[in-house]
Every structure is written in structure tokens, then in C-alpha cells.
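As a representative case, we now present a protein record of this kind.
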Amino acid sequence: MDRARWLTPRKMDAVNLAETVVQGVLYLLLAFPRQADCSTAPRVLQPQRASFQEGSLAFLTCKVQEGEIQDYNVLWFQTKPGLPPANVLKHGMDGSVYRIHGFTERFQAIRRPENNSHLLQIQGVQTDDSAIYWCMVESGNFSNVACGDGTRLSVFGGQGVLKPSVILLTSDQDPSAPVLYILCVVSHFYPGVLEVTWNINGNATTSEATVAPVLDGDASYSLSSLLELPNHIWRNSPSIACEVRHDSSCSVISKTLQECSELQEGS
């Protein structure tokens, strides 16, 4: 395993400029995923999620296909709700590493040629480290750039973690309307890494629009997800549910439209 070493101060100005450019590239990739092609060779694979107990050694993997990991500079970025992507570190082809914007030596870069992958290790992982971490590789001068889909890191067992509250809302709608809407409101959770899935009769659907979490005045997060359903599906579906997964509080919460209707009828 190749452990990274520090860059010399003379190289920092050049790396700062390079990192600024890379941050801009990542911003475009995240903000305009349909316009930006992130699938050029090599292909970069990241697990969808990872969970670790506070204080433990966390590790995030980045596997490269159709190329050799030692032939690429590897960059890691962190995204949190409401904040721009933050550069974590760059691990150069020559083994050098540069950590950026306050990321300390808790964040370690390890190259693993034996399985063509890269690890971002976080020592003594903290609740506030919960975020989405993106791996990007480039072969020099930002040619042949590729990135993974990001890994949701959730840290559990620490202080300050808040379990989300979930409610479903339906407005007074014309039952004969061609399209009907359900709103899933998720509030008072921390940290801000959370997943929302809509299930119709037990099957996941993608007919929703989910707003990214926003930071509330009490330092917790909230978000909403709007499901749009054709009338015939609404009428013929015995189970319509919003499922919320928040790994930091070790909770999976499911609210069904039927539960919402029963509460409204009983009130």
C-alpha cells in the first residue's frame, strides 16, 4: 500500500490553482449531471453508502476499472447540504498528498494497486464528518477525468444525532384530476445525510421531486419530497409509502398514505 506524503511548500501555489479548477469541474458535474459526462474511461465505482461508529476508523473506497490506479491523480471532495463542494485532498501519481481547507491528517489517502482502488481513511470519525464523498481521478492536466457517484457516509453513536420526524400531507384535490400529489415532509434530523424513497405497492418509484436538506434555525435539517401520481395509480394502489433512511440515528421510518387517511378520518 502506498501511503501519501506531504507536498513541499514550493508546490502549494500550483496545487492550489489546480484544486480550484478541479473544484469548478466537480461543481459542474454535480450541478449539471445530464450535461456533464462523468462516464469517460476509466470507470470509477463507489459504494452507495457507508456507516461507521463515532470514534472508529472509517474508510471509503474508490475502485477504477479500465485503467491503472497508479496512473491517475486521485481527488476526494465532500458535499454537505447547503454548502459548495469542499476539496478534501489530492493524492498525486508521484505519491504526494495535499490536504485542503482545514482537513487534517485524520484524513489519509491510500492507494491499493493490488485491487486497483483507492481508500480515503478517516481516523476517529466524527458525527460532523457525515456527508457525501466523491472520488475523482484524472491523468494529468485534467485530461481523461472521471468521477464516481459518491458515497453517503453516516456516522452513528455520537452526541447531537437527531432522529427525523416524518409526516405525509395531501391537499384537497379533485379526485377526478389526471394527476394527484403527495408531500413527504422530513424534519428535525441531524446530520444531514438522509435518503427518501417512495414505494408503491412495495416497489420503488422515481416519480418524485426531492428538495435537498436545508439547515433550520435549531441547527437541525429538514427536507420535502413531492410525489406525482397519475390518477389510475392513485386509485388502484393499496399501499403508497414514503420511506426515510437515516443511518446516523439507525432509523428507517415508513409513512403510508393509508395511515395519513385514517388519522384524518379519525380527527
Summary: The first helix runs from residue 12 to 31. The mean pLDDT is 83.
